[in-house]
Each structure stands twice: as C-alpha cells, then as structure tokens.
C-alpha cells in the first residue's frame, strides 16, 4: 500500500495568514484527494487534485480559499488561504491507485493539525 | 450522503469478538463495501472490503448478507488497540470515499 507523508504535521498560525500543506506519496498514484476533519467530526472531502489541471472542488469549497496543486503523480499541495479560527481542523491527504476503483482501497496520511489563533 | 447506516457507538470487552453492523439497503449490484477505521490522532486506515463473498484478512473478517443489504465487520479478538471509529463506506464508481459518522468502538480491559 502507498505510504503518504504530510508536512507539516501540525502548525499554529495567525488569522489572515496562509499555509501550504504538502503531500508526498512513495509511489505513483492515479488519484489524490484532500479532506478536512473538524474537531469531533467525520471527514469531509474538499477536492480531488488533478494532475496538470485544476482541482475538482466539492460544494462549499472554492479555489480561492483552498488552492491545490498537483504537478506529478506523487505530490500535491493544499493551501489554506486567509485563515480564520473556523479553519482550525485536521487536513488529510488521501490517494487511490488505478484499476477498478471500487476494488481499490484509499490510503490516508496522518494529517496536518492546524490551529488558527 | 454516505449511503450506509451504522450504530453511533459500541462497547466490547478485551479478548472477545466484536461484530460491527452496517446497513446499506440501497446498494447496487456493482458497489463494493469498504471498512476503514480511525485510531486517535491518526488518519483513517483501510481494514477490508468485499463485493459479494465473505472476506478475511489479517485484521478482520467481513460477512456480507446474501441480499447484500447489510454487512458485518468481525474483529475476532478485540484488543485495546482496536478502540477506534469504524467507518462502513459504499464507494460509487471512481468517486472518492464519502464518510459518515461511523461507529465509535470502545474496548474495556
């Protein structure tokens, strides 16, 4: 299974600033996703990171707030822009390899724990 | 819409088997059933998945009802390390996983 490394693992930021989270996978993967997990809640999908094109965002998430890059098949970044305390969450990178998608597990990093003061 | 229904919480004694139920009554013939778990301070971890037949791996067993409208994740001997939130998910096509609230499993020593 793919090994996913996220950086930073945690950070404390001032409101109004931006932070870029990196996701590195140890093998090429077909699909990469970004999730958010607010305190005490389940995971919510932010977007699918598409290689070489704009990410596909879920309802309620916009590119200006959460710009995403995916320059190749092993790396992606998520930026949380103009942060406010409501952005305090865990942000998780997730990947899936090719084939029959229903028959393929998704793998997750351990997340970036972000606190906004 | 996670398209599955699970109990909010369950409790088990250490060393005993645990049966975690999941209802997916609207499942289609080609939808797989996936189980993940999330330990404290970690990302979700893949446990097992299946389509029609029962499945076993080193972590757990998955028993799928004959009509596929429900399934049960079986942990054969619960340990304290198995305390986690368990998610039953029914992926659709090549869309990413959609998480519901899952079942919070507590294991009592």
Could you characterize what this model shows?
- The complex is a heterodimer of chains A (about 120) and B (about 110).
- Chain A is an all-beta fold and about 120 residues long.
- Chain A contains no helices and 11 strands.
- Chain A has strands at about 5, 10-15, 20-25, 30-35, 45-50, 55, 70, 75-80, 90-95, 105-110, 110-115.
- Chain B has no helices and 9 strands.
- Chain B has strands at about 10-15, 20-25, 35-40, 45-50, 55, 60-65, 70-75, 85-90, 105-109.
- In chain B, a hairpin with a 6-residue loop joins strand 3 (about 35-40) and strand 4 (about 45-50).
- The model of chain B has no long low-confidence stretch (mean pLDDT about 95).
- The interface of A and B includes residues 4, 43, 106, 108 and 111 of A.
SSE layout:
The complex is a heterodimer of chains A (117) and B (109).
Chain A: E1 4-7, E2 10-13, E3 19-25, E4 31-37, E5 43-49, E6 56-57, E7 68-72, E8 75-80, E9 89-96, E10 107-108, E11 112-116
Parallel strand pairs in A: 2-11
Antiparallel strand pairs in A: 1-3, 3-8, 4-5, 4-9, 5-6, 7-8, 9-10, 9-11
Chain B: E1 9-13, E2 18-23, E3 33-38, E4 45-50, E5 55-56, E6 61-64, E7 70-75, E8 84-89, E9 103-108
Parallel strand pairs in B: 1-9
Antiparallel strand pairs in B: 2-7, 3-4, 3-8, 5-6, 6-7, 8-9
What is shown here, in short?
The complex is a heterodimer of chains A (117) and B (109). By secondary structure, chain A is mainly β.
Strand order of the largest sheet of chain B: 1-9-8-3-4
Unreliable spans of chain B are: none
Number of strands of chain B: 9
Number of strands of chain A: 11
Structural class of chain B: mainly beta
What sort of overall outline of chain B do the alpha carbons produce when their principal axes are compared?
Answer: globular
Report the helical percentage of chain B. Answer: under 10%
Number of helices of chain A: 0
**Which geometry of chain A do the CA atoms define?**
globular
Give me the Rg of chain B, rounded: 13 Å
Largest interface: A-B, 23 and 26 residues
Rounded mean pLDDT score of chain A: 94
* Biggest pleated-sheet summary of chain B: 5 strands, mixed
Write down the secondary-structure element order of chain B: EEEEEEEEE
Poorly predicted runs of 5 or more residues of chain A:
none
β-strand percent of chain B reads 35-45%
């Amino acid at each position: 299974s793919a090994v996913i490394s996220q950086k930073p693992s945690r950070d404390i930021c001032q409101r109004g600033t931006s932070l870029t989270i990196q996701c590195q996978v140890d093998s090429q993967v077909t699909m990469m996703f970004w999730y958010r997990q607010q305190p005490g809640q389940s995971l919510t999908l932010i977007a699918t990171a598409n290689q070489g094109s704009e990410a596909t965002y879920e309802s309620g998430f916009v590119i200006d707030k959460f710009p995403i890059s995916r320059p190749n098949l092993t790396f992606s970044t998520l930026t949380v822009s103009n942060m406010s305390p409501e952005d305090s969450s865990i942000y998780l990178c997730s990947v899936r390899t090719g084939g029959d998608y229903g028959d393929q597990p998704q793998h997750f990093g351990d997340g970036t724990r972000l606190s906004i003061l | 819409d996670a398209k599955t229904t699970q109990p909010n919480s369950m409790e088990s004694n250490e060393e005993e088997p645990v049966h975690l139920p999941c209802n997916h009554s609207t499942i289609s013939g080609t939808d797989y059933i996936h189980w993940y778990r999330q330990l404290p301070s970690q990302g979700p971890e893949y446990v097992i998945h299946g389509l029609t037949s029962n499945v076993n791996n080193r972590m757990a067993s998955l028993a799928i009802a004959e009509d596929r409208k429900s399934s049960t994740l079986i942990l054969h001997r619960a340990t304290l390390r198995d305390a986690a939130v368990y998610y039953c998910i029914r992926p659709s096509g090549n869309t990413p996983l959609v998480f519901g609230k899952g079942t919070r499993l507590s294991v009592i020593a």
